[in-house]
Amino acid sequence: MKLSLLHLLCVVWTMMGTMILLLDCELSGRALGCTEDERIGLLNLKAAFKFPNPSWHADHQDCCRWKEIKCSNVANTMRVTELHLNDTIEQMPFYLDASWSLNASLFLPLDELQVLDLSLNGLAGFTNTLRLKNLRSLNLSGNDLKQVPNLDGLPSLTKIFLSFNRLEDLNHLKGLKLETLDLSGNYQSFSQDELSIIWNMTSLKYLSINWNELNDSIFEGK
Ligand SMILES: *[C@@H]1O[C@H](CO)[C@@H](O)[C@H](O)[C@H]1NC(C)=O
Ligand SMILES: *[C@@H]1O[C@H](CO)[C@@H](O)[C@H](O)[C@H]1NC(C)=O
Ligand SMILES: *[C@@H]1O[C@H](CO)[C@@H](O)[C@H](O)[C@H]1NC(C)=O
Ligand SMILES: *[C@@H]1O[C@H](CO)[C@@H](O)[C@H](O)[C@H]1NC(C)=O
Ligand SMILES: *[C@@H]1O[C@H](CO)[C@@H](O)[C@H](O)[C@H]1NC(C)=O
């Protein structure tokens, strides 16, 4: 009797062990974190922004747990789908020209990115073209842009926020199928030609263009 009870316990114990083992395999098979390429890509971005975010650390394998990042399950793998790098560049003393260009190729490993917030970073533009086939929303508000950057590499883009820059040149908005466009606070008097880029955007549902130097003449010929 005693022997068989012990035997039974033994069997249950083994089964539980196996189950835990199976569970373990299942979880690791489903990839707990982001991909290695994404993790390295994020560390390169961190270096470009020179910011000491302690949660972004090479030793923390699962970058989905890092701050300002959101991952989603894409084809059974956790991938980085949101990245908030707003107000991230380290503060420069006011007497230095703080504006800088970001190497857009640094985003290439994050090719499932849907939402990217780069607002409030003193960005004057990009070197190389942003290429993110799934990006839907891009926030570039509060930077130092004089022209809309080349957005040709963002075929899924529907929302762009460009408020509080120094935009003079809207040409790269031409032909985009945007739904949301925020151009407020650029203190510009955009020419009729540039405004016609906006009027021609039939997909547009939301436009913010306040705090610019516009008057009723923008409606001429409308
Ligand atoms: C960035 O924006 C998010 C909201 O979109 C906000 O919760 C967060 O605090 C901001 N981060 C910084 C550093 O300002
Ligand atoms: C931009 O980033 C890419 C990818 O990391 C790199 O290969 C390239 O050398 C960088 N270009 C510049 C000008 O730093
Ligand atoms: C874009 O960034 C600005 C400045 O950080 C912020 O106020 C605004 O809420 C952001 N917009 C979206 C849609 O996240
Ligand atoms: C806007 O559309 C009109 C009429 O189709 C066209 O003549 C004009 O060139 C377009 N403007 C821009 C900036 O695409
Ligand atoms: C309205 O704006 C246009 C274009 O900037 C300018 O030429 C014109 O003088 C302005 N009209 C008034 C009444 O301010």
UniProtKB/TrEMBL annotation:
Q: Where in the cell is it found?
A: Membrane
Under the heading SUPFAM superfamilies, the entry gives: L domain-like
Note the superkingdom of the native organism. Eukaryota
Q: Which UniProt keywords apply?
A: Glycoprotein, Leucine-rich repeat, Membrane, Receptor, Repeat, Signal, Transmembrane, Transmembrane helix
Membrane topology term reads: Single-pass type I membrane protein
The record's section on InterPro entries has: Leu-rich_rpt (IPR001611), Leu-rich_rpt_4 (IPR025875), LRR_dom_sf (IPR032675), LRR_N_plant-typ (IPR013210), RLP23-like (IPR046956)
Signal sequence, renumbered to the chain = 1-33
Looking at the record, the residues that make up the Leucine-rich repeat-containing N-terminal plant-type domain are 37-72
Any one cellular-component term (Gene Ontology):
membrane
One Pfam family it belongs to: LRR_6
The name on file for this protein is Receptor like protein 21-like
Q: Which organism is it from?
A: Punica granatum
